[in-house]
Write a structure and sequence with these properties.
The protein is 71% helix and 0% strand. The chain is mainly α.
């Protein structure tokens, strides 16, 4: 299904795609690789990447890969904001004391 086709994927096709994506991303996580499009990902989880790319439409693969990176970046930003908020609250409570 790596080729873009005129038919819409069935529920079974979508589930196969999601399962292969999840397996591939789990393998990347174990290897501490965030971005599947980076050169360091080329020789990691090769068989799982082939399954993922074969089970999902190309546009989906591109979307999932970008979303993976974006989600991690968003989590990091949110954590930094929480830490800054905690630090500001601590500073405020110390100045009141």
């Amino acid at each position: 299904m790596a080729q873009e086709t005129a038919h819409h994927p069935t529920r079974a096709d979508r589930q196969k795609c999601w399962n292969s994506r999840d397996a591939y991303f789990a393998c990347l996580n174990e290897s501490n690789v965030l971005d599947p499009s980076k050169p360091e990902a080329d020789n990691i989880c090769v068989e799982l990447r082939k399954q993922y790319q074969g089970a999902c439409m190309k546009s989906w693969v591109e979307y999932f890969n970008k979303r993976r990176v974006l989600e991690v970046e968003q989590k990091e930003i949110l954590e930094r904001m929480r830490e800054q908020h905690r630090a500001a609250e601590e500073a405020k409570s110390k100045s009141k004391a």
